[in-house]
User: Fold this.
Amino acid sequence: MNVRARLGVAALATGAAVALTAVPATAGPAASATPRFLKPAELPPHPASAWYAGPVTAGQPDPLPICVGEALPSTATHRTYWTEFDTNALQVTVVERDERRAKRFAALLRKDLADCARKLMQQHPDMTAAKKYYGRLNVEEGAHVYGIHTVHEWGPSDIALFSVGRDGRTVTVVRWAQMGTFQHAQVADFKATTVRAVNKLY
Assistant:
């Protein structure tokens, strides 16, 4: 299945795909610097397909990803990725005015991810959701990795990995998603992808 049409981790009750947010991006220290994003080959390897990428696009992703979408400002920049099968990814980068604001924004994203499963089940009674925290990565000002598993009463089971990383005043969110459970999550590969993403922020 071509995942261009499926950028979410699970379908919402409205029938639209639920998009998960993930984003590795990079911005240099200068305000005019263009954020650098992950190359397709830097994403967790897929056993049967290459990765493909859309253009780097100014603004919020549409649709907004679950868990972190509501916090993303209009000044965000994003890029979507997909394989020939049901695996997709998203990178979102935000360059704040100063390091203090970036630190607060990263903390807000982490809070949203920590509470995401509970909120999803409140908003969608037909959904069961669970969260795992996979720890902190020692790269630049740090990055944190989370997993979100969602199951609908009518069938679909999806797994997504998120990371939030920061370098100075630049914050990046990376999301990887496919059909499956926590057992199908490529955690080690995703952590390596996150390190690459945050290292690109300088």
Observations:
- The longest helix spans residues 99-114.
- Residues 3-199 form a domain with the Protein Transport Mog1p; Chain A fold (CATH 3.40.1000).
- Confidence is low (pLDDT under 50) at residues 1-32.
